[in-house]
Amino acid sequence: MALLEAVRVPREIASGRRASGTGRHGAGFWAVAVAFAVAMAFSTVPAPLFPLYTARDGFSTFTVTAVFAAYAVGVVVSLLLAGHVSDRLGRKRILIPALGLEVVAALLFLTGTSLPLLLAARFITGLGVGMITATATAHLHELHAAHRPGASGTRFEVVSTAANIGGLGLGTLVAGFLAEFVTAPLRTPYAIFLLLLVAAIAAVAVSPETVRRAGAYRYRPQRVSIGRGPAYPAAATGAFAAFSVFGFFTSVAPGFVAGTLQHPSRFLAGLIVFAVFGASAAAQTLTTRWTARSRTVSGLTAQAAGLLTLVTGMHVASLPVFLSGGMLAGIGAGVLFKASLGTVAAHATPADRGAALAGLFLIAYVALAVSALAIGMASRFAGVVTVMTWFAAALLALLTVVALLSHRSRRPPQP
């Protein structure tokens, strides 16, 4: 997700002094953006391939969601242990090893399809993504500031959102296309992304560093605190609700399309997830100048309407209705999470902002894992349509709580 509010600019850039070699910073900006997009795209490559794993090895819905949850657990662990380290050690010193973890994961995917191997590969993918997301976003912000001193941050925000959320959707689209039209569908997508990840490492390696190391560094895990005050519960609950939707589409939705809706095309599965994330990225970009309240109201409305449409499409077994609901829910989730980010950043003190945002992302990725596992476990006892109906009802109740908390946080304090 967009991290504009979370970025802390180093002193040599924040002071406004025009850095030397701005041409290199401009080239580095696009090199890091491409590397960021490749890493995020790789993280969603398995999504349209899950039906193939199910057909090959007999994986249940619960097994698929467990594999997906391993990724979310990896992200959470990485956020806690290494999400903040690049502020002291440098962006490239974290980005390159993080991309190296993605390379290791790709090699594991190429090795076989056993469940322990898939769990390990997804966990390692999550470790890398947790390090990359905040670090790459901060690096892009600093390279943009060095290349265009005094310019607005519009280019940075559009590009970082496209690389992050757009990359998530692009990975499913490319993997679905390759799985549909080339041989060895469970190997070819990973082989191609392995080459792209190696190229991404090379691109980051030749990009300028934007953080100067100052003195000795004593490592400590990230201090996580979502913050205090009436605004934080609404932001945290909104983030949880938003990422719960993304958890469904990157774990269970491709299997539902292939099975219940009887559309086995891997390219179609990838296209559906791409449409959801693409709509979310576009909505986040278009609402950049909106107020936090407008984002919250619009996000809540769109996500609620999308969930109702999505469940309707599942009950009537209509792919167009299902897809429309998914895109609308994705738009709402993206805007709602952007509002949560803005709220936390605005209310936190500068000294606590990084920790508060880390806490928000921790809650979001916990939601990613919990939602996927909850759907998977419930599907062992009921059909996926019934499970999603109850899941949507729970999310609608959660959105109601967000609305009430948001309204309460805007009320003036009573004497």
TrEMBL record:
Q: Work out whether the entry's keyword set contains Transmembrane.
A: yes
Q: Which UniProt keywords apply?
A: Cell membrane, Membrane, Transmembrane, Transmembrane helix, Transport
Where would I find the Major facilitator superfamily (MFS) profile domain in this sequence?
27-415
Tell me where the transmembrane regions lie. Answer: 27-47, 59-82, 94-111, 117-138, 158-178, 190-211, 232-253, 265-283, 304-323, 329-348, 355-375, 381-405
Primary localization class, coarse:
membrane
**Domain of life of the source:** Bacteria
Any Pfam family: MFS_1
InterPro entries membership: MFS, MFS_dom, MFS_trans_sf, MFS_Transporters
Query: What subcellular locations does the record give?
Result: Cell membrane
- Asked if the keyword Lyase belongs to this entry, the reply reads no
Q: How does it sit in the membrane?
A: Multi-pass membrane protein
Protein name, UniProt field: MFS transporter
Ranked from the top, the taxonomy reads: Bacteria, Bacillati, Actinomycetota, Actinomycetes, Micromonosporales
